[in-house]
Amino acid sequence: MKRHENMAALSCSIGQQTVEYSTLSSEEQEKILHLQQAILESVAHCEDHLEIINQVCRLEEQLLPDSVGSVMLMDNGYEFLNVYAAPSIPPEAVAQLNGLRPGPGAGSCGNVIYRREPQFVSNTFTDPRWQDLRQLAYDFNLCSCWSVPIYSVEHKIVGAFALSSFEHRLPSPFHNKVLEIGSSIIGIVLERNKSQESLRLLQMVFEGSEEGIMITDSNKTILSVNQAFTRILGYSIEELLGETPKKLASGHHDRGFYAAMWKTINTFGHWHGEIWNRSKNGEIIPEWLAISALNDPSGKTTHYIGIFSDIRERKNAEDQIRYLSSHDVLTGLPNRMLFKDRLDNAIAFAARTRLKVALLNLDLDQFKMLNDSLGHAAGDDLLRCVTSRLKMCVRETDTLCRPGGDEFFVALANMPDTDSISAMVDKIHEQISKPIVLEGHHISLSCSIGIAVYPDDGGNFETLMKRADNAMYQAKDAGRNTYRYFREQLNNDSHEFIRITHGLREAVKSNQFTLHFQPQVDLAAGKVLGAEALVRWNHPVEGLIPPGCFIGIAEQTGLIVEIGEWVLHEACRQAVAWQLAGLPPMVMAVNMSAVQFKRGNVKKLIRSALDSSGLDPQHLEIELTESMLIHDMNYMLSLLNELKDMGLKLSIDDFGTGYSSLAYLKKFKIDRLKIDQSFVRDIATDPNDAAIVHAIVQMAHTLSLQVIAEGVENEEMLQYVSRCQCDQAQGYHFARPMLPEVFSAFIADRAQGD
Length: 754
Ligand code: C2E
Ligand code: CA
Ligand code: CA
Known about the structure:
Blueprint: H1 3-15, H2 26-45, H3 49-63, E1 67-74, E2 81-85, H4 91-97, H5 107-115, E3 119-121, H6 134-139, E4 144-151, E5 157-165, H7 173-208, E6 212-217, E7 222-225, H8 227-233, H9 237-240, H10 255-268, E8 270-278, E9 284-295, E10 301-310, H11 318-326, H12 336-353, E11 356-364, H13 367-374, H14 376-393, E12 399-404, E13 407-415, H15 418-433, E14 436-438, E15 441-443, E16 447-454, H16 461-477, E17 483-485, H17 486-490, H18 495-509, E18 513-522, E19 528-539, E20 543-545, H19 551-557, H20 559-580, E21 587-591, H21 594-599, H22 602-613, E22 620-625, H23 626-631, H24 633-646, E23 649-655, H25 662-665, E24 672-675, H26 677-681, H27 687-702, E25 706-709, H28 715-723, E26 728-729, H29 740-753
Parallel strand pairs: 16-17, 19-21, 21-22, 22-23, 23-24, 24-25, 25-26
Antiparallel strand pairs: 1-2, 1-5, 3-4, 4-5, 6-7, 6-10, 8-9, 9-10, 11-13, 11-16, 12-13, 14-15, 18-19, 18-26, 19-20
């Protein structure tokens, strides 16, 4: 099993726990984190499940001096308890415990099964629950014994996990937590072992088959597919692991069809029939499919197996296939392929008539969050609603397309000029922004639109597509809920663009930049732990220009590489200067642009900035954005690993605005998330935002990531982000970005206040 699956399993088990993490002292929280980390490591590195469980026992023993851990499991007939793991209990005691029949006097573990709840016995010599095991308690000086149930994934109690002590005592909330963690991990490890056992048996039948075969666990999570499957549907096993068969759905069958199918499988153990799936390249594949449920001896389903043959050739419903292959099933809109055809036609016509064609790339803002919080069915309704609103805005000659997700393309044909394009875009923008009532929720949608125009911005589909996409990101960067023409951003002939570019070149040459520093405050300790370096352009005539006015152009022209070099060197130099002046050591956070990673030699730059300043790498943090990680993932993965090896810290800026999920970020060795200001801005008024922040923090903590909230402007926001358990905060409430000397005075001031 791969590490990230373990992490997912762990985070879900952690989610089930009942002891509130926040009720523990920080020292205890730290111990818990270390425990989780150590367990995680043994799960990731160790193949042998018994060894992992032994290790869990030992780790827990370390957290409770003078105690021994043990795991007892029910036998197949669910009659007796046997010792499964007890690395520190002498074999004679194990022998006496084996074959224990659960009952009111059968010790703590026997009572866990008998009463179906945790048992905390502080005096085994007198407690009636230890009646049958009294001799054992005396013989081995087991004075107290706490035991908690171990559950299977189906939430059946399969055994008990116990810590027995050589003194009389009762558990604190911390010990409860430790027990909970142990039992849930043991449950997961046992489950994982079971699935591997069954899989080995299937292996031989599996690879030889001509038919496509897929194996899922009882939750329909895909565990394995064979080569024939890969050949027919085009997905590799890596792309399917952890997914469910829903990923393959063509959209051709409605929910009722699947519900009936699963009902048959769960009643009779199998189903067969015709089903249409969709291959990776979008093709509809009609299949003859047989699904069986695999049960264990107790009749509980452990896996599903699907075997199918490809019956494309047998099918004559070709027209229908063609329609489905060229349309998006959810909305009925043309898919990308058909859209390209239509756009090509519109371009050909425009070329003859000297008209313009506008290609709009429209992306819904925050759709992923809505989809996650309202559920996928509501998300689908929302997409259909957007589709019908778009249809209201466009003409017969225009084409709409949903290439996937929350993205739409619009081709506006026969446009005489830019003004008429803007008028159409305004209309679309206004329509999408009208509130929607969905299942009683009032939802305000917004979208970001990027526009590329034929012939001004490009002569063919690919170029226009790329530029509209580019412009869409500019619209997102501009704070969303707006639109941007490609030209507006990138037209190198525009007067303003040239003026600023020219000025920036001069600024780089004669060093017209300054850094301001904004403190980052640790919420638990109330101390300033770091500073973010924010660049300003000190223009000889116009005065101080904020980064929002020039970073974009610096990126487009590549000047950001040189500006960024200066910023990093200066930030490192300043950090060391403060240390020498006696300020407490802080982490200096520096923003880096995607362009620096693409065009500059980031590794070399960082090394040189560290070397020339003498800054300890652990005091430098690089702020990245989600999109940087996603765009060239493999490259970034190895580069960031190298940076981590140098000892720096990495954080994700503006977290929550991008597309990545936390699950995805686990691949990268990130230290910290910076929750985007947009969530913090409304945290006190929008319960959605508060819930999102809370969820992000919890997930981040289970992955041992720190979380900082940005844009904290007042006491109320601070209260909220503290309640959401953010670790740190940054914002005008503490201080605005300041010149270095103001910053150090600020720190000195705070130190005096302490
Ligand atoms: P950012 O990295 O998200 O930086 C935070 C921005 O939020 C800063 O704006 C900061 O002044 C502002 N801010 C801080 N506290 C609050 C608050 O409580 N309320 C509000 N409304 N705003 C707050 P600034 O300095 O104008 O920087 C804007 C953006 O410019 C930065 O956003 C960053 O993306 C970029 N930037 C700044 N310096 C650099 C740099 O050296 N290199 C690169 N590549 N980008 C930079
Ligand atoms: Ca930043
Ligand atoms: Ca930010």
